[in-house]
Amino acid sequence: MYRIFIYRISTKNEFILNMVMSKAKDKRAARYFKALGHPVRIQIVRQLNDYGACFGGDISSQLPVAPSTTSQHLKILKDAGVITGTIDGPRRCYCIRKEALLDLKDWLKTL
């Protein structure tokens, strides 16, 4: 009786590529987690997840902070890539970036 063993031998380049990709994913996850590191920003993400898209004023009216503070939180989330904002006349409409949440979900699965 013979046994056949198949081994996959990674090349040095594959190892380095995987390491670089892993570092990039870690940096992206850290950026998202940093942006989500405040209870008000978590509430904003929950609200956008529930309603799909909201205007800045509508988001602000649901939060226990001043509109200017809400704007600062929205900017942090937008700069981190967690949400997007589009200008619609005099107002700005925000929505969640599903790709960001999927990135975080995939990253958490690696733990």
What does this entry look like structurally?
It is a single chain. Helix content is 62%, strand content 14%. The protein has one domain: Winged helix-like DNA-binding domain superfamily/Winged helix DNA-binding domain (Arc Repressor Mutant, subunit A, Orthogonal Bundle), CATH 1.10.10.10. Strands 1-3-2 form a three-stranded antiparallel beta sheet. By secondary structure, the chain is an alpha+beta fold. The model has no long low-confidence stretch (mean pLDDT 87). It is elongated, with a radius of gyration of 20 Å. A hairpin with a 2-residue loop joins strand 2 (83-88) and strand 3.
Mean of pLDDT = 87
Number of helices: 5
CATH topology: Arc Repressor Mutant, subunit A
Look at the structure and give the CATH class.
Mainly Alpha
Oligomer: single chain
Strand count = 3
Concise summary:
This protein is α+β, with helices and mostly antiparallel strands and 111 residues long. The protein has helices at residues 12-35, 39-51, 56-61, 67-80, 98-109; strands at 53-55, 83-88, 91-96. A three-stranded antiparallel beta sheet has the order 1-3-2.
